[in-house]
């Protein structure tokens, strides 16, 4: 009887469609999640409970920014008019992070400008913190922004992004936390007419990381490519949720996320949601998630969702696969004189290559390849025992 009641509680908490999700800047407008809600059912609530209510001290992170000349960088008060134009929190943690940040970082790429050098935002945690970052790429501009998370502590963040008409933005978010860190974050990007977004999310560190990435469109011609790579070790929980809200005609979205898992109780979650509204004729969208399970005891949950309100689209689809390490590939490589360790490196590196190689900043890319190499060494050591 108790099981039936729990299933009923879960069912009634699921909205009819994604357009009905509650959004508010006030944390009190959201109930404290219990883990029975659809949006929280995969998340280990015990690990994130301190972020479900206001933090007593939220000053435990240092932020450093490096930007080329011509990029406007400002620290502004939380009531600045540029904040909250495109992102409205859709859960309690995001709303708490919004309410309790005293200053926000605003990065503006001026109209018509192009920057080859990356804009680097480094966030180094030591205790608990909230953060709010506003990125504005004005019309006809082009830039690359890297947000790099390191250190430890418990963190809740909001990243609010506008990509102006005919602009191009490459946005990379790296979660290279220490093993003890907890991070719950939200990234929302609004694309103007004929604007282009390339977003790469790479998550290798932390005890528990839960990132929600959403995209909306202000006019026709918007294009979003969302790439992701993650590698979970024993006991880690890495969760990525995506939502592409196609509410303008003739736009596209492409999602490619790849993850690997090894070790007891390693857990990854990928939720991919796409909503094509009735007015979004000519939409072209596809999402794919692939998971490589390297050892026993690891678990990958993958849930693609596609909701279509018009039949006048160019294309829409999704795919999800989760599989074990391919022993036939190893045998093939070894039969040609390649050792087992090197063969394993080749297979796993090839699995991640088309995602990590999307990162334009060489230093970040090199660091992530080193992290993959460290993970492969752990797998090899375990299998040799």
Write the layout of secondary structure elements.
Layout: H1 2-12, H2 45-48, E1 59-66, E2 72-77, H3 92-99, E3 103-109, E4 119-137, E5 142-151, E6 154-163, E7 168-175, E8 182-191, E9 196-203, E10 208-217, E11 223-232, E12 237-246, E13 252-261, E14 267-276, E15 284-293, E16 299-308, E17 315-324, H4 327-334, H5 340-356, H6 362-384
Parallel strand pairs: 3-4, 4-5, 4-6, 5-7, 6-8, 7-9, 8-10, 9-11, 10-12, 11-13, 12-14, 13-15, 14-16, 15-17
Antiparallel strand pairs: 1-4, 2-3
Radius of gyration: 21 Å
Largest pleated sheet: 17 strands, mixed
> Which percent bin holds the helix content?
10-25%
- First-last Cα distance: 46 Å
SSE arrangement, N to C: HHEEHEEEEEEEEEEEEEEEHHH
Structural class of the secondary elements? alpha/beta
* Count of alpha/pi helices: 6
Low-confidence stretches: 1-16
What is the domain total for the residues? Answer: 1
Tally of DSSP β-strands: 17
Structural shape: globular
Mean pLDDT: 90
Beta content: 35-45%
Give a verbal description of the structure.
The longest helix is centred in the last third of the chain and has 23 residues. It is built from six helices and 17 strands. The N terminus is likely disordered. With 385 residues, it is of the alpha/beta class. It has a 17-stranded mixed beta sheet that branches. It has one domain. The protein is globular and about 60 Å long. The N and C termini lie far apart (46 Å). Helix 4 packs across helix 5.
């Amino acid at each position: 009887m108790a099981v039936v009641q729990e299933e009923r509680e879960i069912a009634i908490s699921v909205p009819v469609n994604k357009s009905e999700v509650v959004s508010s800047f006030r944390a009190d407008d959201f109930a404290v999640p219990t883990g029975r809600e659809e949006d929280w059912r995969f998340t280990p609530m015990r690990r994130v409970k301190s972020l479900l209510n206001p933090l007593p001290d939220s000053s435990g992170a240092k932020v450093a920014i490096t930007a080329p000349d011509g990029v406007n960088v400002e620290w502004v008060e939380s009531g600045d008019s540029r904040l909250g134009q495109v992102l409205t929190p859709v859960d309690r943690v995001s709303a708490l992070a919004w309410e309790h940040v005293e200053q926000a970082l605003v990065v503006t790429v001026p109209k018509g400008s192009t920057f080859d050098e990356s804009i680097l935002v480094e966030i180094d945690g030591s205790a608990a913190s909230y953060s709010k970052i506003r990125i504005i790429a004005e019309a006809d501009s082009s830039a690359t922004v890297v947000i790099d998370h390191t250190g430890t502590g418990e963190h809740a963040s909001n990243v609010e992004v506008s990509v102006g008409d005919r602009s191009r933005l490459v946005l990379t978010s790296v979660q290279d936390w220490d093993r003890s860190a907890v991070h719950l974050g939200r990234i929302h990007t609004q694309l103007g007419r004929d604007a282009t977004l390339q977003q790469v999310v790479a998550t290798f560190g932390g005890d528990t990381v839960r990132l929600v990435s959403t995209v909306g469109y202000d006019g026709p011609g918007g294009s979003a490519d969302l790439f992701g790579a993650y590698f979970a070790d024993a006991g880690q929980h890495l969760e990525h949720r995506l939502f592409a809200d196609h509410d303008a005609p003739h736009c596209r979205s492409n999602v490619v996320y790849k993850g690997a898992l090894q070790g007891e109780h390693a857990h990854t979650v990928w939720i991919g949601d796409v909503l094509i509204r009735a007015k979004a004729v000519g939409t072209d969208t596809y999402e794919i998630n692939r998971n490589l399970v390297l050892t026993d005891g690891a678990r990958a949950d993958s849930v693609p969702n596609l909701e279509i309100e018009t039949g006048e689209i160019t294309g829409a689809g999704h795919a999800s696969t989760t599989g074990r390490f391919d022993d036939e590939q190893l045998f093939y490589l070894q039969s040609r004189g390649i050792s087992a360790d090197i063969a394993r490196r080749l297979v796993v590196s090839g699995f991640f290559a088309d995602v990590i190689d999307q990162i334009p900043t060489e230093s970040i890319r090199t660091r992530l390849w080193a992290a993959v190499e460290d993970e492969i060494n752990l797998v090899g050591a375990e299998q040799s025992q």
